[in-house]
Amino acid sequence: MIGSVSRTAQLLKQADHVLILTHRRPDGDTTGSAGALCQALRKLGKTAYLAENQGVTRRYAHLVEPYYAPEGFQAQIIVAVDVAAQDMLPPEMQQYADCVDVVIDHHKFNPCFGKKDNLIGGEFGACAEIIWDLLAELGVALDEGIAQSLYIGTATDTGCFKFTNTTVHTHQVAIACLQAGVDCGDINTVLFDTKSRSRFEMEKILYDTMQFHHNGKIAAVLVRLQDRERTGADWDDLDSIAGLPRQIEGVEVGLTFSELENGSTKVSIRTTKQVDAAAICREFGGGGHVRAAGATLPYPAQEAMRRVLDVTEKVYRDKEA
Length: 321
Prior knowledge:
Elements: H1 5-14, E1 17-21, H2 28-43, E2 47-50, H3 61-64, E3 77-81, E4 102-105, E5 117-120, H4 127-138, H5 144-157, H6 168-179, H7 184-193, H8 197-209, E6 211-213, E7 218-223, H9 225-231, E8 253-259, E9 265-271, H10 277-282, E10 287-288, E11 292-297, H11 301-320
Helix pairs in contact: 1-4, 2-4, 2-5, 4-5, 5-6, 5-7
């Protein structure tokens, strides 16, 4: 780990007015981590808020919307949670990109852009796990609200505890959340077992159009704008759809491409132990974790797919050499 939980806790104890930032295209970990930290700081008597994230979907809105900062709020300290780099902040938060005081994150290649402190734990499956350790250092006991935020953050970034980034510490966090009153059955059903009709229709399209490469070890799908419009699928419906190609037996790399409204293409990569997803994405200015990473390419879908497939094939050739 880079930094120390005790130092970060001390900095937060010294600040009375705190603003917390989340990353663009917010997931359960950044929203859960931010919501939990905000609630905990308020329990300590701090004035703590979250910067509004305009990209939050209905799935995670309840974790952050109650804590959005009022207009004109002046923070003594600005904290970024689960934000892998400054350019991962959404456009509405770019004004804070060069004045983040504390970074709390679990992406091992984080450039440590916090001006006062960087608490980076690349060995953790979720940023929410680091927040749990931090709250213990701050002396904040979990209540049901904080625990729900931490559980969602931990569960979503570990695939409901199925991914290889799940550790003993991950389960310790989950146990603490259950002991605080979290109903994991209801949460898991909503997040992992329930699909909208639009999501179901999109999955049918992706299964029908999935492409296989490198003797079936690479599977690629394209989420087209026209298919999203036809099915009525929004980003909430498409949450975690990047894991779809990797579910096919024999597939070691799943590539999920998504056409964006501005003409660029997003790629989300999920891999087995054989391939480093983050290494592929770094070739295109992206990043993430060894088994899950992403990037946005300034190209139309077919060109983006060609480029990413070329790099992915090269990774395989180098591995097999």
